[in-house]
Amino acid sequence: MSLMKRMSLIFKAKANKALDRAEDPREVLDYSYQKQLEMLQQVRRGVADVATSRKRVELQINQLKQQSDKLTSQAQQAITMNREDLAREALTRKSGLTAQINDLSTQHAQLQGEEEKLTLAQQRLQAKVESFRTKKETIKATYTAAEAQTRINEAVSGIGEEMGDIGLAMQRAEDKTQEMQARAGAVDELIASGALDDLTASPNDDISRQLDALSSSSDVEAELAALKGQSAPQAISGAGAGQSEPVIDVASTEKQAEQ
Amino acid sequence: MIIRILGEGQYDVADSALDRLNQLDAVVESAVGSRDEAAFAVALKELLDGVRTVGVPHPVDAIDESDVILPGPDSGLDEVAEMLAEDGLIPG
Fold it and tell me: What is the nearest CA distance from A56 to chain B, expressed in angstroms?
């Protein structure tokens, strides 16, 4: 049997089961309407949950981006001080953050998609529920058994199908949200534990410390150079490997000058 | 006739378009049968695009049962197979 027919049969079988439950067909209308209102509430809550989750991920992404920007500027600073090793370290840490950011961004896009779908589903259901309410009152007012039975069947099957569809959409959004919340929780924990923060933690992190040390030693060199009547602290540019070499370099420059 | 795409809504489709849709449906069906994920994704997309192209959206406040129901665009093969295997689609 074709896919289309099989899916349809599954839905209809369920909708009919719901109809069989009540003895008075008019009770089916009220029962169904009650269910619809409940479902509308659920969908509204679902939309709110997804939105909350999405905002949380947005905050996290921003937080990680700030840290990443900081690492970039540290790398630049390290390069101007000729400390490729430090720059490399900063960029390595940054690439770890970039992976996290990309991962979260993908999840964020998915959540946004679910949120949009669920919002549309909510609008569809809202329109149908309102329409059902009117129909329900009309059917009740003009009640003659045979005619009413047919119209009740139509209305309840039609709305049952819609509810089935929206039930699936909600389930899907809920799964995505839960998955996302678990991930967001893990990132929060990482940030709280300092594992991510440590990489760039304000003035005390190792890259900043080394850059500070470098800049004070380069200040010293600059002053030394000024005292000697030189315009630039050449020593620094020749000291890619370590911080304590400049003095020797200055000495060797003097030696060369003597020769 | 009315065709529902799950998660998307209902479309009114002229009966004259059904032959073509049935062909597309058969391709999806065989992909499900052979558990071919890649073929399934392509075939489902073609079928759904087909419905959207030949159909017009059914009024959103009309309460009408669909004649046929199709899985949504982001359904995976496993998901569809599972939906067909169990009959737990409609809550309540």
Answer: 25
**A26-37 pLDDT, tens digit each:** 777 888 888 889
- Going from N- to C-terminal start, the domains of chain A cover 3-201, 202-259
Nearest-by-CA chain A residue for B28: A3
Would you state the pLDDT for residue B89?
38
Contacts 24+ apart (CB under 8 A), B42-51: B44/B71, B44/B73, B44/B75, B44/B80, B45/B73, B47/B21, B48/B5, B48/B73, B50/B17, B50/B20, B50/B21, B50/B24, B51/B3, B51/B5, B51/B11, B51/B13, B51/B21
- Name the class of domain A3-201: mainly alpha
Q: Is A93 on the interface with B (CB under 8 A)?
A: no
Q: Give A41→chain B minimum CA distance, Å.
A: 15
Under an 8 A CB cutoff, do A11 and B90 touch? Answer: yes
- A76-89 pLDDT, tens per residue? 988 888 888 888 88
**Can you tell me the mean pLDDT for A101-109?**
90
Distance from CA of A98 to the nearest CA of B (A): 27
| pLDDT over threshold 70, residue A193 | no
Choose, out of A1, A7, A21, the residue to mutate when testing the contact with B (most B CBs < 10 Å). Answer: A7
